[in-house]
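Section 5: illustrative case.
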């Protein structure tokens, strides 16, 4: 059962009444066609997932009685930094890594990045991440940072408390379970790979590199793969 996003649900009290409005109300009443008395899931995007019962569906909002809190298991913090990809493959990356519990995304433009950011790039990523947490009962809406040049993105990653880790085909045998990193941000390069200058930058900043597969992966596959590996080794 997909959940409905209600950030106003800041805390849980059994029997409390909450109001669902806007796009979520429209989806509940017009798309899902729920009726009064139906049980639904509520998701505040900040760690709270709850079971509710619809008490009234009005023209502009739905009233819901909160009945029970649903236990959730948080994934240890990790982030994904990725070069913008063509053919909306970066949107697939955001969707699937959100489903795997990524807590933040740092899009960037590198030397070999093919696609450039458009005015609605950030908005599209935000909508995809929101839809993903609702679909998979992930109660943590990931942070979506602005698209920056690689060097600036590295600074932002560290300022947010993450440690950059490069996913590279040049480090066979050095896997995600080996570095002792509390909050990694896995760097995923563009379709054209990292430039020599970028590899020198990683070395100069002593950014660790890891392998994620014995084969060369597409960028979106690399991100999903390292996210799945991180979740597995942290369980």
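Designed sequence:
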């Amino acid at each position: 059962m997909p959940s409905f996003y209600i950030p106003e649900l800041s805390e849980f009290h059994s029997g409390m009444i909450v109001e669902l409005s806007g796009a979520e109300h429209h989806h509940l009443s017009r798309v899902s066609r729920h009726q009064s008395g139906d049980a639904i899931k509520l998701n505040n995007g900040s760690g709270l997932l709850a079971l509710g019962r619809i008490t009234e569906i009005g023209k502009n909002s739905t009233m819901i009685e909160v009945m029970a809190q649903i236990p959730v298991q948080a994934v240890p913090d990790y982030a994904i930094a990725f070069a913008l990809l063509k053919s909306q493959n970066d949107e697939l990356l955001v969707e699937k890594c959100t489903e795997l519990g990524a807590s933040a995304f740092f899009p960037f433009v590198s030397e070999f990045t093919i696609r450039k950011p458009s005015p609605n790039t950030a908005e599209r990523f935000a909508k995809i991440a929101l839809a993903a947490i609702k679909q998979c009962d992930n109660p943590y809406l990931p942070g979506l940072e602005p698209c920056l040049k690689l060097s600036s993105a590295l600074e932002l990653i560290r300022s947010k408390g993450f440690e950059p880790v490069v996913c590279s085909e040049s480090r066979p045998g050095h896997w995600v379970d080996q570095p002792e990193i509390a909050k990694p941000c896995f760097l995923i390069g563009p379709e054209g790979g990292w430039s020599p200058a970028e590899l020198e930058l990683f070395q100069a900043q002593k950014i660790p590199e890891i392998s994620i597969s014995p084969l060369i992966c597409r960028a979106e596959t690399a991100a999903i793969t390292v996210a799945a590996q991180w979740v597995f080794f942290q369980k």
